[in-house]
Structures are given as C-alpha cells and as structure tokens.
Amino acid sequence: MNNDLYLNGRKLPVMEEFYSLQGEGFNTGKPAFFLRIGGCDIGCAWCDSKLSWSADHYPLADVDEIVGRIRSYPAKALVVTGGEPGLYPMDYLCDKVRESGILTYLETSGAYPLSGSWDWICLSPKIQNPPHPANYEKANELKVIIESPGDFHWAEENARRVNSSCHLFLQPEWSRRNRILEDVIAYICNNPKWRLSLQSHKYIGIP
C-alpha cells in the first residue's frame, strides 16, 4: 500500500459510485451509497467486476468530494466494495463519513489487513488468496460464493474461523446459478446455520 500515492487515504482509485439497494447478503434491500474501488489482485475467474481489477484505469478521486456526495443522499449508509478495498488506506474516508452519522459497510475478500472503522464487515473469502487471520474475528457476515459442490468444504473451513455471532451465507455463483442453486438449497436445509444469499439486484435489474 502506497500511502504517499493516496495521500493517506485522501485520494482513492474509484471505479464507480451510485445510490441503490444492497442486493445480497444480510443487508439485502437496504438503501445505501455504493463506492466501488478499482484494483484487485485476487483474480476470481467468475468475478462480475473484472473491469475493476486494474487500478491504473481509474484516476484518483478526491475523498472529500465523494463524502460531500454521500451526504446528499437520504440513506445514511456507505458500502465500500471493489475491486479489493483492503489494498487501500480507508481511515480517512471512514472518519469523514462517520462524522456525519453515516454507517460504514465493507465488502472484502479479507486477503489483506484492514484499515478504517467499519460498522459492518462482509467477509467473502477466496480460496486462491485466503483471508488474513485477523480478519475472521472482525467479520459480521461471512458470504461464501458456491461455484461447485467442492466449495461447501471451503465454506465450512471459513465458518470454523469466524466469531460466534457472525452471520453465515452461501451464495450461488451467478453464471452457474441454474446448475448450483438446488445443491445450495439442499446444503442449507441440511446445515441450517447457513442462510441463502441471492444477487437480487441482478434479478431486478438495478446497480
């Protein structure tokens, strides 16, 4: 992480920002301002945001200006996603929005130590670059993407490491949802500590 390049978090490579509803996981249906950070080296083959992988494609945006736009929306919630936000210094952004009473939500693979103050952390671990050990205890929500039946074992490995109050979700990989959804439903029925997460925003056609 090059703090000098990002002016200790006052500048960030922003791919997109928009106001919408959370489409998946524990907070499905809640309105929020979404900030998608560019740059990710995890390399999921099924990633639905591959355009975010190269931070070089996105000019550094002024965080103070972003915070001003976040404040203008009625829902006082910010979701930071990626890309992989864990690659960047997030303390400045979090401090500024929390000063205005805005809740901070993070979506991360957890592969790197996290910065920033978060009201909610959704940990979505990836087997090719597993979470940093310290991030398991911080997770409020564990969301494991299921592409094939073998991914259930990976999900259980991660479930054993999160804190006891963490909410557990299995989410069918979007491009294989018609083939894997039945398996996911059956697994949850037999293992009721898990809940189903669907990418509802894709079903209803919103960002």
CATH superfamily: Aldolase class I
The major beta sheet can be summarized as: 9 strands, mixed
Strand share of the residues?
A: 15-25%
Gross geometry? globular
Rg (CA only) = 17 Å
Q: Write the H/E string, N to C.
A: EEEHEHEEHEHEHEH
CATH architecture classification:
Alpha-Beta Barrel
> In which range does the helix fraction lie?
10-25%
Figure out the total of helices: 6
The average pLDDT value, as a whole number, equals 95
User: Domains counted in the coordinates: how many?
Assistant: 1
The CATH topology is: TIM Barrel
Low-confidence stretches: none
Cα(first) to Cα(last) distance is 29 Å
**Secondary-structure content class:** alpha/beta
CATH class: Alpha Beta
Biggest β-sheet: strands ordered side by side in the sheet:
3-1-2-4-5-6-7-8-9
Got a strand count?
9
What does this protein structure show overall?
The protein is α/β, with parallel strands linked by helices and 207 residues long. The chain has a single domain (7-204), classed as Aldolase class I (TIM Barrel, Alpha-Beta Barrel). The chain is built from 6 helices and 9 strands; from the N terminus they run E-E-E-H-E-H-E-E-H-E-H-E-H-E-H. It has helices at residues 63-71, 91-98, 133-138, 151-159, 177-190, 200-204; strands at residues 11-21, 31-37, 60-62, 77-81, 103-108, 120-123, 141-146, 167-172, 194-196. It has a 9-stranded mixed beta sheet with strand order 3-1-2-4-5-6-7-8-9. Strand 4, helix 2 and strand 5 form a beta-alpha-beta unit. Helix 1 packs parallel to helix 2 (91-98). The radius of gyration is 17 Å and the shape is globular. The relative contact order is 0.15. The model has no long low-confidence stretch (mean pLDDT 95).
